[in-house]
């Protein structure tokens, strides 16, 4: 019975049908390849174009043709295809939409911010000397709320003692990142998104990829202390400056808090992906 149905299906098969199948196969291949290797924001216009072409084909071809059936189903399943291929991009997009202002009441004077900078520099240097791994995120006021909520609320003034205590290996809050906004340490043990950049240095582990990832996702900068080597790195806009000393770190922090003209926090000071 099965083979009889197949034989009937091919009774009226013609060269036009073969060409129809070939054209649709080639079309599907290039559409998927194009979508897979391009950014969703870039191809949004092309998606609309493909859908418009599909509508035209549906209107111009008979219902019995393969092209008509394929384009009909493509319109139905295009949203599912986009979600399947671009799940990470869509997640980032919705993260940006969801961002809300955190602790908008936080306001610090220049002196308080400078004191916070000195405390962060001191803590970072002490952690590096002891080879204690750390992730210190400098958040803006539109930082993603779900990242803060993934950790434990602290809401304390920034101090070197507090930062060092959090990252001590036996501390219950050491595994994760601390989030600093202004002169307040608002949360600890927060989970950060990992960077998927294939061009990151090969020796970057989870901690470094998390530090880079958070600067890709939102308006944040991140200090990374390697547990293996004690090397201090500073991430900004998906880029990393390694082997940061105390003076360089102080300069980066002052610029991050808007207390110093932005001269050093530029692309030439940071590792960047190859284009």
Describe this structure in words.
The N and C termini lie far apart (57 Å). About 3% of the residues have low confidence. Helix 2 packs parallel to helix 4, helix 3 runs antiparallel to helix 4 and helix 6 packs antiparallel against helix 10. The chain is elongated and about 80 Å long. Strands 2-4-3-1-5-6-7 form a seven-stranded mixed sheet, with helices on both faces. It folds into two domains: 93 residues, no CATH class; 164 residues, YojJ-like (1 (3-Layer(aba) Sandwich), CATH 3.40.1700.10. Helix content is 51%, strand content 14%. The chain is of the alpha+beta class.
Output the CATH homologous superfamily of the largest domain. DNA integrity scanning protein, DisA, N-terminal domain
CATH topology label of the largest domain: YojJ-like (1
Helix/strand/pairing category? alpha+beta
Query: Largest sheet at a glance?
Result: 7 strands, mixed
Report how far the terminal alpha carbons are from each other. Answer: 57 Å
Itemize the secondary structure elements and their pairings.
Layout: H1 2-9, H2 15-36, H3 40-60, H4 66-85, H5 87-98, H6 110-129, E1 134-139, H7 145-149, E2 152-157, H8 160-167, E3 177-181, E4 184-190, H9 206-217, E5 220-225, E6 232-236, E7 239-241, H10 246-256
Parallel strand pairs: 1-3
Antiparallel strand pairs: 1-5, 2-4, 3-4, 5-6, 6-7
Name the descriptors.
about 280 residues; alpha+beta; YojJ-like (1; 10 helices; about 50% helix
Q: Can you give me a brief rundown of this structure?
A:
This protein is of the alpha+beta class and 275 residues long. The chain has helices at residues 2-9, 15-36, 40-60, 66-85, 87-98, 110-129, 145-149, 160-167, 206-217, 246-256, and strands spanning 134-139, 152-157, 177-181, 184-190, 220-225, 232-236, 239-241.
């Amino acid at each position: 019975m099965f083979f009889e149905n197949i034989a009937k299906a091919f009774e009226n098969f013609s060269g036009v049908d073969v060409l129809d199948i070939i054209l649709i196969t080639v079309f599907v291949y290039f559409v998927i390849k194009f979508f897979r290797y391009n950014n969703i924001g870039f191809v949004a216009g092309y998606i609309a174009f493909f859908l418009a072409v599909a509508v035209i084909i549906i209107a111009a071809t008979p219902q019995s043709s393969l092209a008509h059936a394929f384009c009909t189903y493509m319109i139905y399943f295009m949203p599912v295809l986009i979600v399947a291929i671009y799940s990470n991009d869509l997640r980032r997009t919705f993260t940006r939409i969801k961002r809300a202002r955190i602790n908008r009441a936080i306001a610090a004077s220049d002196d308080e911010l400078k004191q916070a900078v000195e405390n962060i520099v001191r803590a970072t240097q002490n952690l590096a000397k002891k080879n204690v791994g750390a992730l210190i995120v400098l958040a803006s006021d539109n930082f993603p709320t779900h990242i803060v909520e993934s950790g434990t609320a602290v809401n304390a003034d920034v101090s070197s003692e507090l930062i060092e205590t959090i990252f001590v290996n036996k501390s219950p809050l050491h595994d994760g990142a601390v989030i600093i906004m202004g002169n307040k340490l608002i949360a600890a043990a927060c989970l950060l998104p990992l960077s998927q950049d294939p061009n990151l240095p090969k020796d970057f582990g989870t901690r470094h990829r998390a530090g880079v990832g958070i600067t890709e996702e939102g308006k944040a900068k991140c200090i990374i202390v390697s547990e293996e080597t004690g090397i201090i790195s500073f991430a900004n806009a998906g880029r990393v400056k390694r082997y940061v000393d105390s003076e360089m770190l102080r300069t980066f922090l002052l610029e991050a808090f808007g207390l110093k003209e932005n001269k050093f926090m530029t692309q030439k000071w940071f590792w960047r992906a190859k284009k």
